[in-house]
Amino acid sequence: MKEISREYAQALFELAREQGGEQEFYSALLDMKKEFDAAPEYMQVLSSPNIPTQERCALLEQAFAGQLPEYVLSFVKLMCEKGHIQTFGDCVKEYEGLYHSFCSVVSVRVVSAVELNDSEKENLVAKLEKANACTVQAQYEVDSSLMGGIIIYMDDKIIDGSLRTKLKELKEVIAT
């Protein structure tokens, strides 16, 4: 199923590039995913083999016509026709990866011992963007077990500046 999602996402992204609508298509996919997540029964109806394909596509047309770019709506209808609509969420994730790569956007997870204020968040993102020459989208979490400092998860890198890790390293040095 992952391969199918990747192929669909790649095809849509190539079309978006041709149309110059990478951001517009991405936003439309996120809006549609939000709608599907809010009403999971809708996805059940769209993937039901008991309902004729034409009726399922007509439901999509009724719900989203005029709200989404025509190519995105046609894309989702094609997924429905081919019986792959249940992979829509994975397809959106794949498209997101392609879009972020295209725009040099990196998703980062920042875990801190205490809640960071807005100024600290802005400074951290600015430093990460400067050091990595990309746009950074950060998600923040609090983990009091760190005792202090932060851990940054960025692609395949982990930057561990937590007090817990520093104390652990110090303990190992003293023990030897």
Could you give the topology of this structure?
Blueprint: H1 2-19, H2 22-38, H3 40-47, H4 53-64, H5 70-81, H6 88-102, E1 105-112, H7 118-132, E2 135-142, E3 150-154, E4 157-160, H8 163-175
Parallel strand pairs: 1-2
Antiparallel strand pairs: 1-3, 3-4
Question: Can you describe this structure?
Answer:
By secondary structure, the protein is an alpha+beta fold. It contains eight helices and four strands; from the N terminus they run ααααααβαβββα. It has helices at 2-19, 22-38, 40-47, 53-64, 70-81, 88-102, 118-132, 163-175; strands spanning 105-112, 135-142, 150-154, 157-160. A four-stranded mixed beta sheet has the order 2-1-3-4. Strand 1 (105-112), helix 7 (118-132) and strand 2 (135-142) form a beta-alpha-beta unit. The longest helix has 18 residues, at 2-19. The termini are far apart. The model has no long low-confidence stretch (mean pLDDT 92).
Structural category is: alpha+beta
Stretches where pLDDT falls below 50 for ≥5 residues? Answer: none
| Helical content (DSSP H or I, runs of 4+) | 55-70%
The SSE string, one letter per element, is HHHHHHEHEEEH
- Rg result: 22 Å
